């Protein structure tokens, strides 16, 4: 029994150390803006320790739940086998829109923040609106910053949850039960917020809100202090992104939102995204590989062509 007890202590210690190692690398990623091209970061791997799951691993690496699923098809997200090597999708193609303020890509469930006057980008996983309560697209601004916000349910939210048998309170004061967490940024579209969460393992990188954008507590706090009232916010919905890195063309494909249907199979759209990324450069493209990558929807930039001399 003493031997078993010692083994249990060793296992417990190993799990605790693994957790500490994860926590040490959590938090938003900051990258210098590339001088040429638009691909940042690197794909990594990690080995699954005992006693963890995808929601925890995603938070440890500042990823969203769905993007970890996309990158690791066939792995049980609730009980991944210890010792399994997971792909950590920490390479990104920057969205092909002006690099100003906040850019949110709903299909990717990820936000990009371009601090004014700095040649860098910070990126965050986000939770977005559920089907039927989807987050809107368009150009907005931040009109208010609120610390320790009060959560208030709209009439539409109360009606939707009541249909599910859930009775929402009219409001929730600041504290551990508040769905907004400790920080909220109000957009110029009424009732839409960018905010934290009191359930970080249940809502980031998923369709989990009534239309607002959710961030991990460790992400919303520095973002809240970094942005100013008047910061532009552009919300797009692009399941494909294409980009250039070191003379090579990359394509990144995500699972489209359910209400968009199977537009991921639209080859015209793939060609449009790639042509836009090329910006007139001549590239030898493997179109068969590009179409294959678009259908695999793994959310990782993969090479599909090379620039011609």
Detailed description of the structure:
By secondary structure, the protein is α+β, with helices and mostly antiparallel strands. It folds into 3 domains: 2-90, LysM domain (Membrane-bound Lytic Murein Transglycosylase D, Chain A), CATH 3.10.350; 101-236, L,D-transpeptidase catalytic domain-like (Beta Barrel), CATH 2.40.440; 240-307, no CATH class. The chain has helices spanning 2-24, 54-60, 65-71, 155-163, 200-203, 217-226, 267-278, 287-296, and strands at residues 29-32, 39-41, 44-47, 85-88, 91-93, 101-105, 110-114, 120-125, 128-129, 138-147, 151-152, 171-172, 183-187, 193-195, 207-209, 213-214, 232-236, 240-245, 248-253, 283-285, 302-307. The strands form 6 sheets. The chain has a 9-stranded mixed β-sheet with strand order 1-8-7-6-17-10-13-14-16, with helices on one face. The N and C termini lie far apart (70 Å).
Notable features of this structure?
single chain; 309 residues; alpha+beta; Membrane-bound Lytic Murein Transglycosylase D, Chain A; L,D-transpeptidase catalytic domain-like; 3 domains; nine-stranded mixed sheet; four-stranded antiparallel sheet; 8 helices; globular; disordered N terminus
Assign the CATH topology of the largest domain: L,D-transpeptidase catalytic domain-like
CATH architecture of the largest domain: Beta Barrel
Strand content: 25-35%
* Assembly type: single chain
Question: Based on DSSP secondary structure assignment, what is the total number of beta strands?
Answer: 21
Coarse shape = globular
Gyration radius (Cα, Å) is: 21 Å
Largest sheet: 9 strands, mixed
Kindly report the spatial arrangement of strands forming the biggest sheet: 1-8-7-6-17-10-13-14-16
Poorly predicted spans = 1-25
Structural class: alpha+beta
Count of DSSP-assigned helices: 8
CATH class bucket of the largest domain: Mainly Beta
- Find the CATH superfamily of the largest domain: L,D-transpeptidase catalytic domain-like
> In the residues, how many domains can be counted?
3
Calculate the mean pLDDT score and round it. 88
Helix-residue proportion: 25-40%
Distance between the termini: 70 Å
- Give, in order, the helices and strands: HEEEHHEEEEEEEEHEEEHEEHEEEHEHE
């Amino acid at each position: 029994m003493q031997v078993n007890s010692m083994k249990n202590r060793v296992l417990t210690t190993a799990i605790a150390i693994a957790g500490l190692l994860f926590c040490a690398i959590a938090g938003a990623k900051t990258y210098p803006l590339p001088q040429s091209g638009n691909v940042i970061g690197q794909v990594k791997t990690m080995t699954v320790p005992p006693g963890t799951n995808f929601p925890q691993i995603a938070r440890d690496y500042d990823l969203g739940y769905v993007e970890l699923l996309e990158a690791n098809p066939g792995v049980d997200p609730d009980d991944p086998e210890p010792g399994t090597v997971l792909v950590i999708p920490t390479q990104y193609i920057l969205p092909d829109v002006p690099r100003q303020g906040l850019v949110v890509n709903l299909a990717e469930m990820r936000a990009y923040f371009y601090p004014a006057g700095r040649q860098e980008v910070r990126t965050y996983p986000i939770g977005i609106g559920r089907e039927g309560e989807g987050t809107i697209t368009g150009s907005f601004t931040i009109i208010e910053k609120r610390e320790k916000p009060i959560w208030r349910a709209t009439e539409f939210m109360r009606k939707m949850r009541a249909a599910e048998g859930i009775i929402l309170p009219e409001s929730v004061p600041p504290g551990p039960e508040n769905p907004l967490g400790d920080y909220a940024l109000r957009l110029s579209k009424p009732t839409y917020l960018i905010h934290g969460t009191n359930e970080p393992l249940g809502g980031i990188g998923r369709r989990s809100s009534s239309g607002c954008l959710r961030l991990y507590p460790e992400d919303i706090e520095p973002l809240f202090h970094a942005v100013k009232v008047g910061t532009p916010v552009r919300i797009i919905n692009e399941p494909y992104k294409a980009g250039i890195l070191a003379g090579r063309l990359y394509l990144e494909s995500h699972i489209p939102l359910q209400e968009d249907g199977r537009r991921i199979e639209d080859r015209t759209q793939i060609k449009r995204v790639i042509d836009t990324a090329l910006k007139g450069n001549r590239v030898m493209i493997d179109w068969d590989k590009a179409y294959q990558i678009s259908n695999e929807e793994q959310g990782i930039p993969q090479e599909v062509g090379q620039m011609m001399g």
